[in-house]
Amino acid sequence: MIHREVSRRAVLGGLLGATAGIAVPGTAFAEPATRRRPRVLVATNEPWGTYHVKPLLAEAARRGWRLTQLVPDRTGITPGDPVPVATPSDAPRADLLVVTGAGDWPAECAARFRHLPLAASALAYQRPVEAPRARELRPRLRLVTASSAAEGRAFASYLGTRGTVRVVGSPQTDDLPARRPEAGLVLVLTSVTHPDATGEAAPGTELLLASAERLAAAGRRILVGLHPREDRSLWERYEISSDPSVVASARAEAAIGIPGTVFPLVAAVGTPLVGCVDPELSVPDYLLSVCSSTVDTPDAAPAAVASAHLPDPATLADAVGPVGGSTARLLSAWADALRGVPAR
After folding, report:
1. InterPro entries per the record (predicted)?
2. Structural domains of the chain, ranges and CATH numbers in brackets
């Protein structure tokens, strides 16, 4: 049974409530606390995808922590990337290993660093189906975190755990932009068209491209929020935002795209969403819950965007989680896991 704390606070002008957490009785871990400033290794399902760790760097630096992302090699790292990386063979000494999923790379890193305490933190959505290698991680997990109650339920199913999930919010909502929509502007949120060594792709690009064409023909200005791994050449006929999609969404009257991790964050800004849903797309229900509507044909896009609206506050709170201070909560949760503090 999932238990949710009932206290909530209003944010974003009363549009959004923040759930304090979801919990199931779990196992307490106890060991002497350390005074050393933590040294954390992070392994993600997208081995070279440093964009999930980048939002954590400022808070880590403020605390004097050292975060290092584990990568198979450095071939997929862009020169100048601010996220420190290391291969398992040259990784620095560490106090904690954090995995963001149960894919092959995190599971291999967990096996390699079996002496380290282990935590799992959802920094991107996972389907609510137990991952084949989740059973390798479960016995060692001291902590599981998610950005929201809804994400926590999906992540728990993905990990195959009935233990506590600590809701901390998304680091990307720590500094939400003020919404100033520009007349006629629609943000198009892409996913990844072509899979690569870093990660998988999501179906629906053709539908989204055709929907953007219909919207442009109807007189809408198109601004593209490009996924970090998307093929830029597919979208160069339109303006591509130089800002992250969450920041860019503050300019848009509405957003349309392939539902993904960014959708609840855009809703938190106050920008209504329309989902482009290919029949082959499989995402957690909470990503669809923040959509005003979904379309499966391009011709439906203009009307759907014109009538787009935000979900009710309870749905928004469930999908977004607490806003503000989320990175600090996440790192504090990691510190608790390192010290052996029971999950709460």
Report:
1. TAT_signal
2. 3-170+321-339 (3.40.50), 185-320 (3.40.50.2000)
